């Protein structure tokens, strides 16, 4: 849940996440593209480079799993709990995530363009580049993450909160935001300032944005 400091007229993400129960541990996990798996636990497994397009995982738990360069295009994750996912290259464009939590994620390049996230909490990860271009984000909380570049180009987001995150570059060209809360997070650079329309920031962030706003308006500031 978002902390009290974020309480305002801006609506916070509505999350109703729960840890999957009564899951069955899979001793020698093997997944195929198009599989539908339900109520399973995968621990310290590697699916590096595997073709997993269109798979569905429902009420599953993944802990310490490596998905480097696995093909997850069109995958569906429903009421899952992920922890310590590792992937220098994470490829899941056009994927669907619903009521799912991800903790301590370590991604290099994450391709999540054209994806849909509903009721998702991404907590405490280190991610170099996250591509959410043209994605639809509803009730999404990103907290305690270090992100090199967060690309929200063309995103449609409702009740999105970036909480206590450190972000290098935030790209918002063509973004459509409603109830997007950016307070408590820091950014070294922002591209596409028009995409900030509909977002909530704090006074300190406004001061940091001043040079970018002046530049976008062609203003010359002299002491």
From TrEMBL:
<dbReference type="InterPro" id="IPR051082">
    <property type="entry name" value="Pentapeptide-BTB/POZ_domain"/>
</dbReference>
<dbReference type="InterPro" id="IPR001646">
    <property type="entry name" value="5peptide_repeat"/>
</dbReference>
<dbReference type="Pfam" id="PF00805">
    <property type="entry name" value="Pentapeptide"/>
</dbReference>
<protein>
    <submittedName>
        <fullName>Pentapeptide repeat-containing protein</fullName>
    </submittedName>
</protein>
């Amino acid at each position: 849940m978002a902390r009290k400091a974020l309480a305002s007229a801006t609506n916070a993400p509505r999350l109703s996440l729960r840890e999957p129960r009564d899951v069955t541990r899979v001793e020698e996990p093997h997944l195929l593209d198009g599989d539908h798996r339900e109520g399973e636990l995968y621990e310290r497994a590697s699916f590096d480079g595997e073709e997993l397009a269109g798979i569905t995982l429902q009420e599953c738990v993944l802990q310490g799993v490596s998905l480097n360069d696995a093909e997850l295009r069109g995958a569906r994750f429903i009421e899952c709990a992920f922890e310590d996912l590792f992937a220098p290259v994470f490829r899941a464009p056009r994927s669907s995530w619903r009521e799912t939590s991800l903790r301590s994620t370590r991604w290099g390049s994450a391709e999540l363009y054209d994806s849909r996230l509903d009721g998702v909490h991404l907590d405490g990860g280190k991610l170099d580049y996250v591509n959410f271009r043209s994605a639809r984000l509803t009730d999404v909380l990103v907290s305690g993450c270090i992100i090199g570049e967060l690309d929200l180009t063309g995103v449609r987001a409702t009740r999105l909160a970036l909480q206590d995150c450190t972000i290098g570059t935030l790209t918002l060209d063509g973004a459509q935001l409603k109830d997007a809360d950016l307070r408590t997070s820091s950014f070294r650079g922002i591209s596409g300032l028009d995409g900030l329309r509909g977002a909530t920031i704090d006074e300190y962030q406004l001061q940091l944005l001043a040079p970018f706003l002046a530049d976008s308006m062609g203003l010359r500031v002299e002491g």
